[in-house]
Write a structure and sequence with these properties.
Strands 1, 2, 3, 4 and 7 form a 5-stranded mixed sheet that branches. A 5-stranded antiparallel sheet has the order 9-8-16-15-14, sandwiched between helices. It has about 575 residues and is of the alpha+beta class. It is elongated. It contains 21 helices and 18 strands. The longest helix is centred in the N-terminal third of the chain and has 29 residues. It has 3 domains: about 55 residues, no CATH class; about 150 residues, Penicillin-binding protein 2a (Domain 2) (Alpha-Beta Complex); about 325 residues, Beta-lactamase (3-Layer(aba) Sandwich), CATH 3.40.710.10. Helices cover about 35% and strands about 20% of the residues.
Length: about 575
Amino acid sequence: MRFFPDRDRPFVFSRIAGPRPRGKGRHAGDFLTARFATPAARIEFVAWLFCAIFVGLGVRLAFVMARAPDSQPARIRAIASQNLVLRAEIRDRDGQLLARSVATQSIIGTPSDIYDKKASAAALAGAFPGLDEARILAQISSSRYEVRIKRHLDATETARFLGMGRGGFRLAPDVRRIYPGGMLAAHVLGYVGGDRGSGLAGIEAGLETRLAPGKAAPVQPAPLVLSLSSPVQAALESELGTAAKNWQARGAAGIILDSRTGEILALASWPAFDLNSFATADADWRRNRALTEAFEMGSVIKPFTYAAALEAGTLPGDAKFDTRGGVAVGQWQRRDPVPVGPGASIDDVLAVSSNVAAAQTALGLGGGELHAFFRRLGFEGTAGVETVEGFRAPALVSGDPAQTAVSGYGYSFQVNLVMLASAYGALANDGVRVLPTLVKRDPWRDPESVRVMSAATAGSVRSALREVVIRGTGKPAAVAGLDVIGKTGTAEKAVENGYDPNRRLASFAGIFPGFAPHYVVAILLDEPAGAEGEAGGAAAAAPLAARVIARAAPLLGISKQEPATVDEGNVQRKQDGESRRGL
């Protein structure tokens, strides 16, 4: 038997066509008859025909899917369940649940299976008041294979839908992210949205890959544990909201930070909103003002100007100031409303918040050295926390002497509240700044930190800041038995052609308890209503800080001490009752 019966044709085609007819003349009918003469040839031809048909159908299906990706049932089901089912819970440092995903149902419509579209749209809109009849009709009249009509049905809504008995509609599994605390830590947590349920703000967006690893995670990821303490967070939010409303402020923000670990125990922004209905909240309410808004902070920066000069040796610890003549650089000049001196100490000039003394100190140090110190404090770049929001502070560039002078008392550069709190953390932590975080630290690992000043310098500045609260502008921040230390700030806000004295930022940044520096509190009120002396840092922000500290201290396990004896390295001071009253 020959492998090729006809030498000019391969074996397979030879079998299909059959043997060539003999003779010189061939007709078409004779050729086809001869081609399919045998059963084997006919079976093989039919098999090849079916293969061609199936290949054609596959190509057509691929074309349709490519042209209309949203019309695939598989995609609808994937949208409802992809990744969200596996999204990790979020808990606070004590295990309190802050966010979780729960199974729900969605109504899916198949337009081609809906006969009376107008009646169906009317029936659904009547059964579910939140739905728009015209929109439903447009959806089920489209050319898509399936459309999603309503998401996240509760049990009552599910029963109502099942009782409708409408053809062309079905229930599909879905997942919803819920926040048991509602408004609690809303700006920190953020929210999810879209078909895929991805994080859109806050921690939900900043740590998206940790919360929803997707296909890489065969099981639901372990809960994400934040550094927040829910009771402390609630106390901060409560006091911040009350003060902001009382002062008719444009906005407000606050933070409580553990200086030793960098953990943020509470971070609040006002106005607040409910995470479970975030889409209805105004975009301005959803902004995290502690991170996204940065300002020229004013006098709360002054302690770091003195720290920089003490560290560089350009300002001795027993330096004496005389601010009566003001300070001038070329045509620029500044005078204090209440001059001090001669012979005023660092404690004295900080207590009265002298701009002249801070400018003199900055000029004596030089802009390059001052800004280099500010960089170590974190006043350049970002705060580095895990939320998607943030503010990138521009590079600190040393300019003319006038710019150096105003930098000394907190102008010409911007920082946000988290940056400010982190810098005060270095004062509390004997000169070591621990990078801030919103995720609970592993107690067995040392946190990332950098030394920005000596322990002696930090102790000297803390001592001066205590005088601010004992007898200076910070007296309203005092809390009996906790020896609060800190600094007030009242800064005019920049406008197009300078600064507007009627638009101010009132702030307070401090450390508690003073006898064992551990926690930092920073508060700001944006544009509180009132005259300058009535709505500044001393009048508006300092009392708010006192109320926050008084509520947070027992939650943090801090016991009051009376009388207060402070021992900070070489700095030891005992305060009597008269000095406590600021006399």
